[in-house]
Design goal:
By secondary structure, the protein is of the alpha+beta class. The chain is 27% helix and 44% strand.
Length: 90
């Protein structure tokens, strides 16, 4: 699988999403790596837990993984989810 990259310029900083064979990296002020099996589970359990995975809160979507949380607009989250689904054929 060839890695795929999505750049999301926003008001806070530029965020880069890299989808690789073994998982997804989200790079901004810091970097968080999420293994493929975890990110696939987050997609399958979308909006079901405020503590892990993707959760809609108002007009934003929060991604929680271990001790990290990052907030996206719904459009950004949709672009990320679509990229992951396309990359992993799910």
């Amino acid at each position: 699988m060839k890695e795929k990259i999505l750049e999301l310029p926003n008001n806070r900083e530029e965020i880069v999403i890299i989808v690789r064979k073994l998982g997804v990296s989200i790079i901004g002020y810091w970097e968080i790596a999420i293994e493929k099996e975890d990110i696939v589970e987050y997609l399958n359990s979308y909006n079901s837990s405020p503590f892990v995975g993707f959760m809609e809160v108002g007009d934003k979507v929060i991604l929680s993984h271990k001790d990290g949380k990052i907030t996206f607009t719904r459009a950004e989250a949709s672009a990320i989810i679509n990229l992951i689904r396309e990359s992993y054929s799910i």
